[in-house]
User: Fold these one by one.
Assistant:
Number 1:
Amino acid sequence: MTSSSRPTVLIVARLPQALLDLLQQNFTCHNLILDGLSEQQLAAIAPQVRAIAANGEAKVGREFMARFPALEIVSVFGVGYDGVDVPAARERGIQVTHTPDVLNDDVADLAIALMLAVARKVVRADHFARSGQWQNGPFPLTTKVSGARLGIVGLGRIGQAIAKRAAAFDMQIAYHNRSRKDVPYTYMEDIVSLAAAVDFLVMITPGGAGTRALVNAEVLEALGPQGYLINVARGSVVDETALITALQAGKIAGAGLDVFANEPHIPAELAALENVVLTPHMASGTLLTRTAMAELAFTNLQVHFDGKPVVTPVPE
Ligand code: NAP
Ligand code: 8YV
């Protein structure tokens, strides 16, 4: 393909170098963030843009897509695509693709890591050991994870990978989805009942309007002072203000959070708490997995421009 016949791709998110390299080698690329494109520059290239490369957090709304009359495809680097207005894309016949499955292991691993870290106070124990406090006496006792009761909200690809790991910890597993699944775990019709029945509540649903603030003050009250919340889904699925209030008041025991309402901002009140473990939206962040995600996000664009069906379209 000559450079003039190469499709034009607009990059709208911070993407890993591996993906940027693949895009630059194969397409004419413009990077909204790294190139610092002005409105005028964006308007000048808009008629040529045939693809948008985004990530799981990027906002690709109706009005934004409307600026690109030749847009054919939005390729998301990430499984979650709640920032993309999929109905608006469908109305115009624009394909939307994402990167499911290749990240299941890593996200499930981090959910388990957060559960262990917050219940066994791993981060505080590390500080205790490094700072010499051990010389004044032993570290306080912590909470056992093996054999505890686990509730998973969103028993999909990643939720099932979490359940598989939790089963190896002899955990008693229950879940809530909108629909019951053919799995050997206990189904709960609503989140409040699930929260009341477990020691650890793990959120792993998609984000967006359908799951906004699924975890509210009532759910946290039901989880109770011995219960832990783990969120590896999206910040939007938890009412962050209600969570901070519950953590401050000891209404729940603690939280392990990889995602936040207004990333990369974390409220100071949350960061000041001792009963939380916070990670910077890095659940899929291993070299192997991010490379696989990059290859899949690229392949979806490549096959589309070769006139073939995309590999991983978002579901109907
Ligand atoms: P998936 O296979 O589509 O599973 C999502 C599950 O959520 C489904 O089982 C679905 O079941 C359930 N669900 C959807 N809406 C619900 C609702 N309102 N109430 C209760 N359950 C609901 O997706 P996945 O591949 O496991 O990924 C899940 C999400 O994890 C992604 O969309 C993304 O937001 C997040 N994620 C985060 C990271 C990170 O870095 N922290 C990395 C990867 C993914 P029903 O349809 O039966 O309700
Ligand atoms: C990514 C994610 O870190 O897949 C998702 O939905 O949230 C994460 O895997 C993210 O999309 C890349 O920035």
Number 2:
Amino acid sequence: MSVIAFIGLGNMGIGMASNLAHAGHEVRALDISKDAIARAVEAGCVGAKNAKDAVESADIVVTMLPAGAHVKMVYGGDDGVFEYAQPGTLMIDSSTIDVADAREVIASAQAKGFDMIDAPVSGGVGGAAAGTLTFMCGGTKAAYDRAKPILDLMGKNIFHAGDAGNGQVAKVCNNMLLGIHMIGTCEAFNLAEKLGLDAQTFYDISSTASGQNWSMTSYCPAPGPVESAPSNKDYQPGFAAAMMLKDLRLAQSAATKAKAATPLGTQAEAIYSLMEAAGKDGLDFSGVMKLINGSL
Ligand code: NAD
């Protein structure tokens, strides 16, 4: 059994940390929120007072933080992970952050002799609690192989996507595509309805024709056809539009640096930013239907 420092016990981190603790590891839980640490202790973790306390005796460090700035500070800042980690410590950052930030932090870790991977996830809060996340990992094969048994305790599908940062690449490219086909699906259902074709009939036809896609068949943004979809619960999340917008912004940042043309990704970001401007980005991302049909 390992000693694992887990830093960032928010909506996602709490479920992931408790799965590690339930598997018998000693999980040393750290967050800037005392309430978050208290919840982790209730879930079987050991509360840590500070980075030194969390990291000093750890074999593995896992982070689940809001954004790149937090990740850079937690690892490389004063009193950070790099300062206190023992030689040989494995570091796993599961936060969704800018590709360039991930590559920078991993390069710093490697320069100090640590194995580190980026391992962003999909599967949401439910997947984190159930231990069924998908992990998209970037880093050396050796670091990935060390991380895999730990990731298996928190996830169901674990992929090695290549070198450092490639986990983030997979994540932002996937979510850019998701944002684009969600908006396209909303447009199609809205147009069908305006032309006199009801959502269920259009669904029955299109879901077996070439317009079929995940946004339609698993998460239909028009109320009715997919019972479990947020559209049948007033678009309560699920996966909030604010989180989709975060990922679309990361995709645009990466596309700008790579000089990659992403005209539809750019549009998707602009459309989700209208939900933010309207103060409606707490709705599920399929709630972009309300923007498209004029009911936001
Ligand atoms: P969250 O805001 O609920 O949790 C982040 C936690 O980090 C908070 O408890 C916060 O107090 C803590 N934190 C911030 N700065 C810190 C610091 N310096 N030291 C220690 N703790 C610190 O966010 P979340 O929903 O758990 O998401 C975490 C990451 O996972 C994000 O990068 C997000 O994009 C990604 N993600 C989230 C979801 C989701 O459905 N929520 C799905 C996939 C990926």
